[in-house]
Write a sequence for this structure.
């Protein structure tokens, strides 16, 4: 009889079986490391003298930058380190199994049934060719021995317990048919299918929007409480750890430099390194280091960009999907315009149209008064030099076979700059982004993530553009590296007199760099205002939901219980009549579901698309 079936039968008898079982397990050590070390080949130890304990019914956060050894610890717990890795420890036990002495059979028995992992990229962890219900069912059959109807019921119960709406319908879908949040919930169900006692969560929210991230953090706490498992939560996001973990350990260069209760470590750090990490976190309301509002733009001057009635539609599976709908805006010279919104809101599609990598289905774009649609020949080449883009993943945007000097020279050559003049400009921009001259002769794989992003920025500014569109330029970076890149972007923006369109789902980052902020939802602009006004008094209920979902780095701000939120269905909301946000809005009335609100002026420089703006409601 499997553990879930046994628990459910006892619970049915006296109503308390599951609670009794969880209470018995709670507090039991499911991971114990003492003097734990990992060495790769003949190199020095990359993980050194780690002491770490995770108990059933608690979440232990593991914070550290890339290369600190966090993932090595997690993979060692599964026995999945590379063959050249050598593990030594005074004690290294997972659910009572000594992993230093365990053979292949013991590790196979351990994986899934005692310890399981939730990866950062749920799409990569799920089989794209199998329906999600079948994938979970295979784990249930392997570890619990259930077949037929019993297996099907167990799959549906797991999906319900990880808060997947309509589990019968979702079980029949493929991973690509689910939203990011639903895929991560399915990945959680897959990890829990073998009833593990230890769950390893490696950056499970990094790729998610702030509202979906908040749902997954609530889910992790629910899994801890309802399943009674111990969770090792690995993240470089201090807000995620602050809002989720019971205890925390901070890693640097393979060593734990500080550990303790989450409030002790994050509110009263004793390590200089922990203090540096906390100081690097951009916080909502913290305007330190930000340019004065207006950023030197001339409100009375002609806009650099003028966008009128811009729309972009695609055909998908026999229906029309509206990625961008009727967007109009003006961007001034020297301005930093922040663009925020969840995945699917239209941010990246808008960015591609701004740099002429995609053509609108309707509407008009102008730069310096020239219509995009009429640019040909030399005028088009001049436009390409004037508008550049920095992408989210520098490793993917840099040619791995080209040395840095060649990558940075390409936009110069396209503009007719060659020879000694090109080389002088390359040296100049590399110095400007903080890279030494010898960087020019190296290949991308020889650099860290932050250095690669600096190279991408150098390439974007080499041809002296007027505008740089930045699409999530810091979301893949560690918190300290992110702070360095943000400082660099502001410095370059002022030195080169650039105009930025800065796209991100991280509201604290957007507030730190932007003069104005535009909020998009389901392809539409729902609010636009000066950054200070928007963050101080958001008028659209969606903007408020985004701000409320930002995980605070202060553990005292943790909600007592997970607030109920509309289920993440994964369906595109713009197909609904009326306001696309009505199904999620706490203020929605019948008018909202029948009539789409137009973008209207609320006050000078502040426009909102809402029938019942929040700031007209008075104090809550």
């Amino acid at each position: 009889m499997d553990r879930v079936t046994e628990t459910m039968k006892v619970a049915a008898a006296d109503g308390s079986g599951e609670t009794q079982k969880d209470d018995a397990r709670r507090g039991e050590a499911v991971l114990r490391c003492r003097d734990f070390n990992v060495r790769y080949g003949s190199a020095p130890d990359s993980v050194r003298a780690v002491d770490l304990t995770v108990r059933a019914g608690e979440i232990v956060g593991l914070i550290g930058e890339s290369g600190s050894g966090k993932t090595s610890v997690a993979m060692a717990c599964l026995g999945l380190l590379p063959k050249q890795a050598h593990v030594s420890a005074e004690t290294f036990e997972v659910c009572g199994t000594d992993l230093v002495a365990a053979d292949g059979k013991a590790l196979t028995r351990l994986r899934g049934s005692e310890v399981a992992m939730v990866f950062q990229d749920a799409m990569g962890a799920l089989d794209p060719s199998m329906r999600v219900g079948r994938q979970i069912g295979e784990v249930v059959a392997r570890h619990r021995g259930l077949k037929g109807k019993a297996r099907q019921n167990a799959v549906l119960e797991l999906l319900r317990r990880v808060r997947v709406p309509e589990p019968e319908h979702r079980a029949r879908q493929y991973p690509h048919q689910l939203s990011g949040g639903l895929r991560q919930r399915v990945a959680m169900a897959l990890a829990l299918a073998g009833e593990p006692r230890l769950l390893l969560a490696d950056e499970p929210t990094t790729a998610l929007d702030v509202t979906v991230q908040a749902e997954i953090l609530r889910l992790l706490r629910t899994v801890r409480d309802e399943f009674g498992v111990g969770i090792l939560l690995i993240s470089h996001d201090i807000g995620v750890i602050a809002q989720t973990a019971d205890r925390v350990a901070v890693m640097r260069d393979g060593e734990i430099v500080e550990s303790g209760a989450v409030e002790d470590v994050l509110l009263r750090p004793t390590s200089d390194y922990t203090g540096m990490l906390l100081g690097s976190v951009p916080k909502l309301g913290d305007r330190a280091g930000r340019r004065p509002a207006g950023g030197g733009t001339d409100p009375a001057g002609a806009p650099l960009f003028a966008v009128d009635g811009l729309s972009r539609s695609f055909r998908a599976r026999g229906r029309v999907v509206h990625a961008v709908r009727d967007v109009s805006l003006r961007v001034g010279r020297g301005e930093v315009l922040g663009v925020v919104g969840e995945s699917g809101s239209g941010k990246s599609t808008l960015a591609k149209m701004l740099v002429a990598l995609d053509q609108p289905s309707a509407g008009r774009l102008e730069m310096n008064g020239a219509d995009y649609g009429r640019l040909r020949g030399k005028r088009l080449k001049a436009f390409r030099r004037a508008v550049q883009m920095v992408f989210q993943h520098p490793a993917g945007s840099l040619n791995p076979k080209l040395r840095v000097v060649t990558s940075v020279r390409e936009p110069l050559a396209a503009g007719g700059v060659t020879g000694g003049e090109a080389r002088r400009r390359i040296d100049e921009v590399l110095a400007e982004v903080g890279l030494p001259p010898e960087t020019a002769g190296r290949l991308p794989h020889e650099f860290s993530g932050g250095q690669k992003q600096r190279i991408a920025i150098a390439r974007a500014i080499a041809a002296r553009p007027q505008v740089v569109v930045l699409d999530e330029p810091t979301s893949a970076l560690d918190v300290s590296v992110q702070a360095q890149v943000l400082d660099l972007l502001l410095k370059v923006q002022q030195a080169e007199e650039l105009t930025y369109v800065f796209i991100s789902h991280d509201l604290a980052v957007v507030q730190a760099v932007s003069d104005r902020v535009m909020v998009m939802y389901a392809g539409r602009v729902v609010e636009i205002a000066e950054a200070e006004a928007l963050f101080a008094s958001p008028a659209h209920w969606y903007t408020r939901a985004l701000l409320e979902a930002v995980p605070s780095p202060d553990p005292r701000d943790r909600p007592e219980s997970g607030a109920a939120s509309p289920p993440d269905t994964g369906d595109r909301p713009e197909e609904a009549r009326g306001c696309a946000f009505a199904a999620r809005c706490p203020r929605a009335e019948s008018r909202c579901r029948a009539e789409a609100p137009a973008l209207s002026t609320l006050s000078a420089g502040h426009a909102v698309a809402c029938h019942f703006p929040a700031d007209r409601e008075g104090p809550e």
